Amino acid sequence: MKFTEEKLEKAFTELLGKEGFHHHLGITIVRKPDEVLIEEDLQNFLLTQYVSQGITVNEVKSIILLLKSLPSSDLYESNKTFLRMLSDGFILKREDRDQKDIYIQFINYAGLNKQIQPHTEQLISIAAELEEQYPPDNNIYKFVNQLEIAGNEKRIPDGIVYINGLPLVVFEFKSAIREEATIFNAFKQLTVRYSRDIPELFKYNAFCVISDGVNNKAGSFFAPYDFFYAWRRVAGLAKDVDGIDSIFTLVQGMFNKSRLRDIIRNFIYIPDSSKKNEKIVCRYPQYYAARALYDNIKKAQKPEGNGKGGTYFGATGSGKSYTMLYLTRLLMRSEYFESPTIVLITDRTDLDDQLSGQFTNAKNFIGDNTIVSVESRANLRELLQDRKSGGVFLTTIHKFTEDTELLTDRSNVICISDEAHRSQVNLDQKIKVTEKGVTKTYGFAKYLHDSLPNATFVGFTGTPIDATLDVFGKVVDAYTMTESVRDEITVKNSI
Fold first, then answer.
1. How far apart are the C-alpha atoms of 176 and 387, rounded to whole Å?
2. Which domain holds residue 201?
3. What is the pLDDT of residues 76-95, one digit of tens each?
4. Are residues 277 and 289 in the same domain?
5. CA atoms of 435 and 439, how far apart (whole Å)
6. What are phi and psi of 80, to 5 degrees?
7. How many domains does the chain have?
8. Which stretches of 335-385 are DSSP H helices?
9. How many helices (H) and strands (E) would you count in the chain?
């Protein structure tokens, strides 16, 4: 079956309707021709959400004005500012200075993951109160098609998903019947023509979807075409899908209301600084792996658990470094773990440099300013000694030499090991006979485990072996070479 653009629009409209996104024609939306927000929805949501704090109409209007004043001339920086407000919330200073400031979120994330909260103590306590006060999901979801927007030129995007009046996802469809209209044309329509003519729309964009019915892909507005990907899995279960079926997995996977809110909140990474306008929207293996590992770490944490947080088997192109980054954000923002300390361990210096570069440029995303590449074991001891919480420390396994001195006995320490099939699973005793007599030594992993006796250990590997599972626990999620080939990752550079 091949779709005309009209049929494709109808198919997405129906599928999104089943997920709870009510359909509205663009002409029914009340707004000025050059405006892209549905201000009435945003105002109604904020007034309802913060009624108990006595938020005023004027205060809500000041928030809307703040959004509209973000310059579309610097689209990347404005989008970065907006997405930080969208995912992490912000503090509203009151009109009446005698009143308590309000922690504002544009989306009600309550009921999504009660354990995930903003990272400062002030925001955690406020957000926890909000969780109790509001129903799990009172957000306003809409799918609007054929919305005419007056900009430098008049443009009509095929579809826009709105949450609480914010145009968060833009859809562009091309017919698979017309040879000259390809999915690449849909990408160009968004990133060239719309970007030039209606940049206002993309200040508020979380991600974009392009489709010709057979190919259905999502990606960042700032990403090259090669970094738009299919979403081939629903609810964490691997499912072989191709062609038209990938419409269903894209909509049911990314636009399940809870999952979409989770992706928006925790799985869109913008570096602290970027010369290349980077914005990374998670791919399905990264999302499901980070979520599965997070849940498994909770169960494995000592003293109730056994400290085996799980093994992730990721073939070439699974994007392990981003999966680690998303997992670290989930852990750091988790009230459950009480601001854990993360130790990231690799067994290659070059990889350590790559990871440390990525992580030290993600302080805002992770929510911790202490992200340090550790120079020596003594340095790590110094950093961990009096630390009760927080911090991300990157090191290589080789820094754990024959030293069994305790680094910390805290149980909210999580060790994430890359390439876990190599030296990190070496727990066995070795006996060496020398002129000086018999000496007993162990692999680096033994010293690591002795130094952090109550930590939870997680392993990332491309080649799991029995010893990996013995140290890190069962495989909790996998991305196979077959999936990598189907996703066309293996022909590209691994992320």
1. 58
2. 141-281
3. 999 999 999 999 999 999 98
4. no
5. 10
6. -60, -45
7. 3
8. 349-360, 363-366, 377-385
9. 17, 21
